[in-house]
Specification:
globular; 3 helices; two-stranded antiparallel ribbon
Length: 114
């Protein structure tokens, strides 16, 4: 798996070449899942099913039902990637921080913060 590398919201280019740099393997998987988690659902006009309701849920009242809904939405997005073992997904949402851990089908463990 390969994706154009993005760091701090900016595309990354090779020094002196101007060519795109790429995230590969598990780094590409992590980058793609984070991008979909932070993109509001429906913002991509070419694919209105892309994105999530994560930030809408984070900004709403922080009750138990919202926490369950938030974790369900994160899991839905992470499970979309067929490179991730769906039974390996662990979500920790605490005080404005969301950390998602998972394992790829290749056995590589990864963690992302949203």
């Amino acid at each position: 798996m390969r994706d154009i590398l993005v760091q701090n919201g900016d595309l990354c280019f090779g020094t002196g070449t101007g060519d795109f740099l790429f995230a590969e393997g598990v780094e590409a998987v992590k980058q793609q899942r984070v991008r979909e988690l932070i993109m509001p659902l429906g913002d991509n006009v070419s694919d209105p099913t892309e994105g999530s309701t994560v930030f809408k849920l984070v900004k709403s009242d922080n009750d138990v039902l919202k926490q369950i809904e938030l974790k369900r939405e994160i899991k839905r997005i992470i499970k979309k990637d067929k490179n991730i073992k769906s039974d390996s997904i662990v979500i920790i949402a605490d005080k404005g921080s969301i950390v998602v851990s998972f394992e790829t089908n290749a056995g590589i463990k990864a963690e992302v913060e949203v």
